[in-house]
Amino acid sequence: MSTPTQEPIQLVLCDMDGTLLRPDHSISPRTLAAVKALQAAGVYFTLATGRPPRGMREQIKQLGIELPTAAFNGGVLVNPDGSYLQTHPVPYEAVKTTLNVLADHDVEVWVFADDQWLLRDPDGPMVAQEQNALGFAPRVVTDFGDYLHRVDKIVAASRNAPLLVELEHQFQGVLGGEALASRSQAFYLDVTALHANKGEALATLAARLGVPLERTMALGDGGNDPAMFKRAGLSVAMGQADEAIRKQAMYVTASNEDDGVAQALERFVLKP
After folding, report:
1. pTM (2 d.p.)
2. CA-based, 20 to 30 A from 258: which of 28, 65, 98, 119?
3. Tens digit of pLDDT for each residue in 78-89?
C-alpha cells in the first residue's frame, strides 16, 4: 500500500500500552530513536493513555516530552510540570450506577481519584500485573464512598474477556449518555466521563498547539483509540489489535513487539 498524499504531520498522539510499549512495558531502541528524530525535526509528539498521570512519568522523562499529555483516556490533560490543564471527572450518578452494576459480576473493581489507584482487594489476580505496569502501588480502602464525587476513571479488570464485552454493551445502555465505557485492553474495561476520550484530547491539544487536525496522526490498539482515529488526519492501528479496531484506522502497522510505532513514524512522518 502506498503512502498517502496529505499535508505534513505536525502532531503525533500515541497510545501507550499495546502501542508505544512492548509487552514488558519497555520502549524499544528503534521506537525511542524514531520519537527523538521526530522531535528533532520539530514535530510534536505526546501521549494519550488510559493510565493515571503517575503511570506516565517514567515514559515522559525517557522520551523528553515537554507537551501536555492525556491521562485517563483524555479525562485529565496534564501539563509538563504535573499540573492539570483540564479535567473531566465521571458524574456522580454515573459512578454510582457503574459500581452497582459491577458489584453483581466477578470482576476486580478499581477506582482512580486524587491521583491514586484505589481498590478493596489487594490480592486480586490482576493487581500485581497492573502495579508492575503503572510503577506504583494501590491504596487499599474499605469502600469508595469518600471519593465518589471526584472519580477520574473506574476499571473493571478480569481475565474473562467475553464478560467485559458484555458489560461494555450493558453500560452503553445504563449510563444514559453520562459516561463512556470502552475496553482499553482485552482484560480492562474503563468507565470515564463523556468528554473524557482521546478524540477530544487530540482536538484540544491540536488547538492549543495551533495544529490543524488534518496534520495530526494517531496511533493505538485498543477500544479507547478509535475516538482519536476519527479526529486525526492520519490514523494507524497496531498489527496485533483486534480486527474491529484495525478496520477503524486508515492504516495498520506492525505489532508493538515488532516496532510498529517506529515503522509508522518512519513511513508517514520521517519519510525521506
Report:
1. 0.86
2. 65
3. 998 889 999 999
Rounded Cα gap, residues 266 and 30, in angstroms: 10
Model confidence at 4, in pLDDT bands (50, 70, 90)?
Answer: very low
* pLDDT tens, residue by residue, 235-266: 999 999 999 999 999 999 999 999 999 999 99
d(CA 89, CA 72): 10
69 domain-assigned? yes
Ordered strands of the 84-87 beta sheet: 69-71, 76-78, 84-87
In a domain, 5, yes or no: no
Residues 51/75, Cβ–Cβ less than 8 Å: no
Question: Using N-to-C axis directions, what is the helix angle for 29-40 and 260-268, rounded to 10°?
Answer: 30
Q: Which long-range contacts (CB under 8 A, 24 or more apart) does 228-232 make?
A: 228/13, 228/48, 228/197, 228/198, 228/199, 228/201, 228/202, 229/199, 230/199, 231/199, 231/202, 231/203, 232/13, 232/202
